């Protein structure tokens, strides 16, 4: 413990000097097998410059790779935060309290430093408690936490009563392991460097040790040989001459490690003859890019190419300009008739709770969504060879989608007037730390039209009505190694919620001996596209499965209705028409009834209705899930990764509410066999009519890389909507006022 | 002729007084069977207040229904426009010249007033001529026009050489009729009012004649009884107490008219017992809405409901703030590396030509798209009963998609800094008129991220790179009676073009005796949803078929490649994986090879490549078509409307370039039988490999109305992309500079 204490002292020194370095990897160094890793309260303030043998390139690289340094304002302290809402995440104080309780809990008390906290988060009160709580009138319900802890090779799930101090064991999953801690994700990268065979191999590839960068890669589950110990694979890259080491794989080199003992189990090196792809044209940092002639051969000056000329406008002048977004008590967002609770979560990333929308007729807030979040991701790569077959990531359950969310970049990730929320997370030693600016919230005007109507000369009525579309966006970005997932929840004034996933960042590429396509054999399966000399972009899929705990006008009385559209032929003589499209409503009785594989030629609408609530003319009030473009997994259902990712077998599932069914791939996803997924739960085929329902939707992407994905990958997005269907008596947009010149801010341009 | 002359005089009087009324229907009145209708040069300036027996309600209503009046600036005169680019549309002067030539052309010269101009537009020069033309260096190629004229019941297609004055007949389609003129669309609505039987029927429905508003409805083609004469159906509504007469149908009343003789052929009245739905809650005008207590029962004040609180921000301060959009010579748009020609078209609405994108490596502009536009729309309603079966609109070929485009509403349809383009169209008498502010062009920042990457603590590199997404939008909105189609072409700096269709406006509804669902019989097929008392929203589809004349890096050497993704099982022992997704390229040899029906579980990418141009590492340069959410027609292929709309049988078609194949439903769509559609052309199965290709894509929507579509329908959008695929050597976004605080305008808020 004295080790971490001295580092804490260092941190405060650094704070005092206002010399703030963003996460410097050496501070995360985990001495082999002893004590917990050190993390700081403020992620922006971790300091320390000592190099060790386990950080062979980090320190040297740090000088080159850090962004332009300037004094930063002191990051916000959350030490005095208190919870104000039943769903507020654990505070710094509460985390520290929970940590103390865990460390005092037998058997951990015997050796608290052997206890690793993989997860420590609010144990949300039961739904009825939350629903009946009234701000100002009621005290907060008792605060409880739930922890996932590993101690001497065993995983524990524990309920913690923060008031009474009671720590109660809960059943733990039979297979799989908890989400990796951030600390071990960081430190395991360095573990191979202590292995002489690894060093020799790297040198055989002609890479200096000081240029090696490694990544921890979850290995899925491929049979009994990989059971009964926590394993990880490490693959490495050359960071020589570029920040974009992802483009320079040491192809074929895979190190199998025991995560607990840090023992190198096996080094596989299949990359003989495959050169490290060149660094030229790979660096993406703007500052670096403008210094060097990256293209090499162009003669036209870059400023003439027009790309720099375009200025990103600000969208609006700032929060002082109008009511905009109200952020109440730190987590409650009010805007445009909407009210919801918003928080960071280490595993899900961002959680939207109790989303309620105001009825324009009555003014009352009506329940729509009790809780919505990304539950799991599944990212299978499509290369069955030794160094690639196992890449079938589950980014939420294996890596922690929230843990990977870095601070957003103001003006570029979010517009000028955005408001930011921080996350408070827990390090492996149980200590809290702050992830600054993890979520942003902003009012969005994209130049779109919410509704408009003109009368044409046909009717001659002089009507030109138009209402601009203004929405509210809550955004988080998770940077899971190379990929950046931009997660947006967008709320419209007409009650629609659009959930959007953007994929950005950098491709995971494969080294190849080829520098031109003509070198490949005819019909050779390269599993991807040759993007540049010696670089193949490997085909892969992304699936993001959302858990949407719908409470349409109340929790307990929801049903799932498929409104199927099909061709109806007319009877002879009935009509000059032979056919028309007929809609038929099917209420799903049980879970299997509600499993949907989308088909263009077998279309349907997907409603969650409250059959006990009807509109004036008798329609059940509802919300519908509206898919947009998506992709479906084509893997063999019996393929091990697809069994683990079986929650992607359908695009839509509906389950009865069950507090324990939050994670589509299971609570312990790491090395799981797929025994505890949404697909297995749903096999029970429980009744789902007129109940508290949870709707699941999977958004998919196929990605065949192309040269435009080199050396960076532009954002590709897809989305789906939750849209009111007979929820309102008539359209809420009727209340929206058209914009007039007087409404707009007065702006003057600055020099560009 | 004296009639129209006196009206023209009136118009200029009105202009002088700066008392400008937007289109007043009575000015479009067409006295039965004589002379041409009168239209003005400036659509905003049409004045006149005389009421006639053919405009029974327009004049009275006009007082109530016109927008807030204030003096407007004089609309732009286009009288002195000259063409500056080979693709520039006909100017006012050229239209007048063409008109004189047509009126002097035998046989029309015998009775020029019997000549009706249905279309008069630029006959674009042949592609090689346009491609080789250099601004400044070359004179404009000879200006030619093509006209579609009806004269004494016969349709003529004529080529007009504006320099020599030669008028040359071209072959006219064997079946179908040309697009209706705007003048007849307007005037035919009033035709039934001269029929005593019609008036009696309306009175039987309890509607005052002064409250009747009627619409001209194209009737498709349903067999030989409807051949050999131009027919139209008229249906009517009560405008009593609302501007939103669409919500008050006189259900079941259909008048069949001869379009040429204006004779009422048949009145069908099946609406016995169906009341006119009430006017309450239907008016959508903001001014009216705020005056009346529309909801009736709410007690909360509306200002508390939060809907008015939201201000639409301006997005950016204005064109002075930065380079923004360059609009050169009136029609050439330059922005962010893009250059393209943009124009209004009476039939297609908006046409994008010669879209070229700058290569960030060489600075050269490279060809992408020679011409892109909405070619046809198909909107079948799904009710086979007498008053509804025929509603299977083709909005471009029947009504003229550009003719229906009304002036955009500044600040609401387009942001403050938008630039506007006018359209110059031709009235039935051949005279030009100006459709002001028909297209807007603006730079868009929607708060999105073009590319970003952060390194997480896993690698410890202090990297936070992010580039906001700024795009350019060209927008037009066609108001085809009740529906408003928002058409966006959005250009990204990374070479992607997104084509987006938004549906807004008002539903076409059906009257019903029911005021509550419980009154319907069990499983009764109402063909839609009960939206309000006596109002059913009828199920319908929308299909928009785009013609995309791709010229990827040149016109003559393009091929269409399907990159098919399918499951590949591994051999036993090959891999711990059982399966992966394998991509296989298929070059389409002939048209049928390129007909695509999309399937989620049979996915593919759709590339147009130039096989003669390769990237450095050997990939053929290309653009891919990326569908997003869409819908497919389920009608029986042998159903008459589906035969006419057979161009929707596939989502994707590829044809060899053929100048005459521009309109997917045929040149003469009105009452056509489907003998001359994209589907029939493509039956010839012509070779399409390594040729000049045209790509066709159909975007579809199924619409089951819900109460949120009453009394107005919020915008629903879908889109597809044209996206570079191995077109660039690497990603153009590398050149984009991140935004800094200094880049942004200085704004101060005004009172809200």
From TrEMBL, chains A, B:
Residues 65-87 are annotated as: Disordered. Keywords: Copper, Disulfide bond, Metal-binding, Oxidoreductase, TPQ. Contains 1 topaquinone per subunit. The keyword Oxidoreductase applies. SUPFAM superfamilies: Amine oxidase catalytic domain, Amine oxidase N-terminal region. Residues 178-277 form the Copper amine oxidase N3-terminal domain. GO terms for molecular function: copper ion binding; primary methylamine oxidase activity; quinone binding. GO terms for biological process: amine metabolic process. The active site is at 395 (proton acceptor), 483 (schiff-base intermediate with substrate). This is Amine oxidase. It comes from Sorghum bicolor (Sorghum).
